[in-house]
Queue: 2 jobs
Job 1
Amino acid sequence: MDAENPSGRETVEGIEIDYDHLDVAAIMTQVKRVAARNPGEPLEAGPDEPPPPPAEPPASPVIPEPAPSAEPPASPVIPAPAGPPPGPPAPSLKARLKAKFSRAIRPFAPAIRLLGLPLHEDIEAAFRLIDATNRRMDEHEQVIHKQIDRRLDELQVRTDRRFDELQIRTDRRMDDMQDRTDRRMDDMQDRIDARFHDVVKEFDNFRDRLDLFADRSMEYIKLLHNLDHNLVVEITKLRIEFETLKSRARILEKDLDAQSQREKILEKRLGS
Amino acid sequence: MKIAFVVQRYGLEINGGAELHCRWVAEHMARHWDVEVLTTRAHDYVTWADQYPAGTETINGIAVRRFSVPKPRSPERFGWLQNFILEHEHTERDELAWLEEEGPKSPDLLAFIRSHAAAYDYFIFFSYRYWHSYRGIRAVPGKAILVPTAEHDPVIDLKIFRDLFRLPRAFIYNSEEEREMIQTISGNQAVPGLVVGVGTEVPDDSVAERFRKNHRIEKPYLLYLGRIDQNKGFPQLFQYFLRFKKETGSDVGLVLIGNSILPIPDHPDIFALGFRPEQDKFDALAGAEALIMPSFYESLSMVTLEAWALGRPVIANARCEVLQGQCRRSNGGLTYENYPEFRESLKLLLASDRLRRALGDHGRRYFEANYTWDIIEGKYLEIVSRLGREP
């Protein structure tokens, strides 16, 4: 505990806690901040740790790469020949022979090194290291894939939810706009009605009169139609009557002619 | 009022989350209703093979009707089907084939529900993902109340469940997060639902010293209660805990109570005690610095509620939305998403006794406000009475 004061606040491990209004969310925000400042090394099994679960790579010590200029460890290897020493004193005979000998066997140095150095241990260690690294990489890849899948799923759910919310908000906005537009239209209609009331009234009267006139005209037209019809009928009847009278006149004329002839005949008979 | 609780397994020996949940609720609601349990004869949740005798028996005063599962589940075929539907394009028919294999497929149980629907006012189905719930709810949708006990696992996205979630008359959720998840998936906001959860009872005589003495644990310790497997976040917790000790030099121990299917690191500060009796569990909880919950998937963590009932703080995996939501709502625990957060949360918790007490007190108040049996029973009565009032 770093500090404590009577007001119900405490600072522990760099995190301020208000005990009067304890809020885990606020504490976790601070914890996340502190954790982000000190992320530490990535997870790796160390040599002192117990054997990890089977999915884990086997614990393996990290083998450092030997520096190219470093001296090889104590071994029967013959060191690479050094160049002639610069300047005096002149090398001794033994040194010169040694140098010549070294130069002579230089082409065989790799084979000698291969035979003399414990290279198999280096190779084994390198393989172990590569194997451990591969396992760790595989495991990390799996973990990353899982995390990505999970994050993608969460993102999908959040996106769907956001879309739904957006849809709901859009619908609500559209409804509001529709309501406002309807109200504005109603207001406008009322104002137009108020402004053009007299004109509209005059129009209405005129329209009524027109309607009345139209009605009357229609009645007149109907009467005229009837009159026409009746006149045609009467004319037709008169024509027929005229034709009949004409026929009767012709008949009477014929009768008269016949009577005249008869009269003449009778007069002749009476005269004779 | 006559109510049937329909659950995949039932018995005093069965400690699975949903099954225990069902038994506790049934036993408590028997004070208010005429309760019967309709279940299978299965004991083993892998094969659902018949083990209990057929017929009716009474367990703690509750009549339990058991029905046969004629065809046990084949784990190989089920595994193949599950992989197929989770990793390939598939049809609804494939999902139904998976459900048939998921089981427990008991045609007699379904026939009984159909033929006796009029004899019960409501059927309360536990666990959405099993055959009995899917078929049972479709048989009596107007009388079905579903307690989904859903976690954020991939099968919840199957189409058959999206449709199923719109069928029941009502839902009883375990948490706000579960309700949100199901409503997001299925759009079933119109179906009435209540967040209830489950109550728990803790003994008054939990003694930390008894546990320390019995198991020779002197140092402060974090406690984990439950099964030790990959889904519970375990290889990760071992890594985090050992790294925390190495980096900080803390002397805190980790006590594990529960059966393990994973190798447990051989470390002097990790105490794997296996399955322990209830009294031992509560004694351990009373003496713990905090309960640790590394699980990725929880519908409702009963041990978290038990820790809060005893006034102990919790440190939980924030990747589990339910645990994170509960910690935030209760102010009863800290969470972590990765190792740096684990380290900082744990350092903070171990450094301040006052913070541990404050978190524990808040957790206890949250428990008392939401998870005592009076409240749980009241919520069950409320939802049933609400359904009675609605047409």
Job 2
Amino acid sequence: MSPPPSSRAIHRLLPVLLGGLLLAAWWAAWLAGMFPTGTVPAPDEVGRAFVGEVRSGRLGEDIVASLYRVGFGYVGASLTAIPLGLVLGRSAAVRATLLPWINFFRTLSPIAWIPFAIIWFGIGDPPAIFIIFLATFFQLVLATAAAAAAVPKVYYRVAEDLGLRGDEILFEVTLPAILPQLLTALRVAIGVAWMVVVAAEMIAVRSGLGFLIIDARNGLRMDLVVVGMITIGAIGVALDVLFARMAQARSVRWGVER
Amino acid sequence: MSAPVAIAASLREVGFAYGAVKVLAGLDFDVRKGELLACVGPSGCGKSTLLAILGGHLAPTQGELERAGASRTIYQDGGLYPWLTVAENVALGVPRGTPAAERARKVEDWLTTSRLSEFRGYHPHQLSGGMRQRVELGRALVAETDLLLLDEPFSALDYQTRVRMRRELVTTLAARPRTVVLVTHDIEEAVQLADRVVVLGARPASVRRVLDLPPGRRPRGPADPGVAAAEETLLEELGLT
């Protein structure tokens, strides 16, 4: 049973109220002189910097640049990791062969690949996309493999009885069966991809929210650093809400409800 | 001289092993066309493995199985696809290539017969255990399969639902006759429903006895002729007396 509308409105209002409280606490602490000069900007400075960045069009360009890199890295990782994860999930031999190596690479921080990314891909978008790809690829392989390996055997026996073969089993049994877990994995992965964009844009690019933060830090513009941080956080929340909405789709809701 | 009995499946010295673990050994019996054959045996003796072999999901590691036509299996619980609705699950059972109108008619027929019409848009987790089994039965019966394999289909249900489902199975099979192999640990269920009961021994399971049950109404009641004696015999064969 879904909560009544009044309860839903309160649930939506509570995070906004908390945000207002945090803002008030930040402002009060700044007015009380609790932060050494130049370390934390005042909220109104951040607000003015935000308006300036929006009016100049720079913030919009940086958002588009970061979304482009995250989009390419993330979609590329999803398109390659999910099929590989399905193979791993369905074949014990492939799993035994590849799993140790996937875990090996998964535990390496994507930042460790930065020198190789620059040597292999030069400057511009490709090295940043590569870093985002690496940050999400191995996670998605593991999550897909775990979900595919956990599909009850009885589903495949039923499929055999029903005369399903090859691709039909993949598209009518395996994929629908793992969709709820897969969507959760994709939701976690988009958060990671968005988190890594700052590190990825430290290298060889001159646009994006990560670059905005690094560039502002170099110019000691802490107000712009906070503008970049708040924008990244807000887009992260928006992406998460988008994935949460997708989890309400009829084809996956069963995974949450039952 | 009596007429020859038509055979739906024939097992000749069938054995099965998972690696070094022998599960079935030397099974030798026939499944007669149109009968309801129950298989009982101790827990873990390989009853479900036998059903998987009859269903073509496992190949015997010894002996031979002869079986004509297609089969459908109904599992204890969880055989329905949870991402599909009741109507979609039943529709999946209609053979591929069936025209859409015919498919819809078959699904509709079953939903009406099984009193599930108003639940057509529900998902399996929104149904009771008995309703889920009716959907499974529908998915199996909307196809003209020869052999229906039931793997402890009612064991996850409460007593009252179980009794009701046995009656529904009998009614359904009267309207849509099939050859049925029922694997159950429930002696009462086997005696109430079956034409014959195959008693399997402990693992590696072999046939201890094939018991013919008297003809008459189904499901048999406890006071029906031969029921008490049959239950007694089965309990003895299973070493439970």
